[in-house]
Amino acid sequence: MERGIFQGCPISPYLFLLVIESMALAIRQNPNIQGIPVAENELKISLLADDSTCFIDGSDNSFKSLFDTIGFFSESSGCKLNISKSEAIWIGSLKGCQRYPFCEKGLKWNKFTFKTLGIHFSLTTDHLYDLNHKIKLKSIENTLNCWRARNLSLVGKICVVKTLLLPQVLYFFSVLCIKIPKKFFRQLNTILYKFIWNGGSDRVKRRLMCNDYSLGGLKMIDPYTFSIAQKMSWVKMLLDDKYQSVWKSIEMSILNNFSSREDILWKAYAPQSILNKLGSCQLAESLQTWYIFRENFAKTEFGTVFSAIGSCQCIWFNRNICSKSKHYFLYEDWLDKGIVYISDLLNPPHPGNKLFEELILDYDIGKKDRRKYNFLLRNIPNDLLVTSDLTPDKIFDDVKTKLLKTLKIPKYAYSTMLESCSPERQILFWNDLQEPDEVDWEKTHVNNFKCTISTRIRSFYFKLFHRAIGLNEFLYKIKRKVSPNCSFCNTDPETYSHIFVECPNVKPIWDETVKAIIQKTNKPLNVSTFEKMFGCESDRFLTYLFLLLKYYIYICKFQSKPPNFEGYKCYITANKELEYCIAKKNNKLPIHFRKWRFNI
């Protein structure tokens, strides 16, 4: 090339990759550069974009050859190494070594910690949480302080959490597969929900806020489940036989050394004490994540959690099968003979387990193992010794196949592991308005959320359904008001059905609204109290008009002014004009005109 390229030119990264990959190949093929042996491979260099991490044995010859190779490619490409920004550290058996090669040329030597690709590492995994996750809590709080003064709706605040805060921890969740203390998630949730509820206490259960719109939730993120879902990407790579990498060979060698069967821990339900013996926090967390996902996958696909399917449980390293002294079982000779699951001990179609003599005939175990047999059977809970139509291999293969076929693993894993919480109390309360008809609450929630694009009105509906609006009847009970009576009529207690439907100051507005709708549609319309509160199941536009009216009443209450029909009409017009401008900007005017069939 005779001339340079412009900044932002799309060919720029490709040209850089040609040079950096050539340099990496030269380093890997240079016999004078001795790397670190990993399983059957030798690790010398790891690349990500323009960051390079080199691993050498620490000899002077390797250091000199490495910098000579880098210097040669620097002269050839013009992409020179900035040695003042480069860092080095002794690891493994040379940890704490007092030799510091190339320090006179500006190479910085660290003793305990170092940073690469935005992640702080230490020589032991015990400090990874303190170096990375813990310090992020303060950063998240500082980000939220910039948004506290803005008058955002609940939906708007959740949008801020998802777009500005989650990305700050997403990288750590997906890259560092370590055990994160529950304390971190408690502190993070406290920060997030203090922001959502303006520093006050929670008005709605957090699990209900994480529900889907169809369950009356706001799709708030559950940080703990979100962190586990990110780790499922590691699980997929470990289970994928076609995927090969240096880090995977390390983990698989650990599994091979742990037991004669490489997949025993994948099929087991091992406790944390067993996983800690692996000596790899990444592998231990991947297995723990696998157990949680498998539990919820079975519940979704087969209608029951995996731990309740007794015959499919692995006998060995099972957290539910242990002696009084917390001794978990593994009979290597039985495992080699093919005894893996509880189903191998059962004798269908007959109830109960096989006799010791039957095990000898079926699996050719030793005749001297009767004591081991009795000790094992004595410690297996009776509720696990039950046959099932499902087989262990089917469950394992189904989960593995689904994972390998799924492209967006974290998203799929999050939806699978997030436990939905049914708002039973709210449903029982509001069902009293609709007796004896049965309410399709899923359709009701979807209609109310999708009938409007306003985040404030959506947030209002959420508060209305969950009874999170501070009405006088409730405020009087907690001694925040001197009277429980309605803010408009001041005669009856201010309940939800009263202030939004039955109040003498509000009822004429409903009558005028229904009358105007009948005139526009030329159809009879009989609206019940429940339909006024939650809309018409068969007509989303009427649901929107009724929701606007309730929100208009809500505004009037907190502005201490009486509502009237003319004010409601003006409010409808203002919302229509706003939606028209948005639809015009987004080229969605046909949808807008289909929605606004008539004006009141």
TrEMBL record:
Residues 1-114 form the Reverse transcriptase domain. InterPro entries: RT_dom, RVT-Znf. The keyword Amino-acid biosynthesis does not apply. The keyword Glycoprotein does not apply. Coiled coil: none annotated. Keywords: Signal. This is Reverse transcriptase domain-containing protein. It comes from the Eukaryota. Residues 1-26 form the signal peptide.
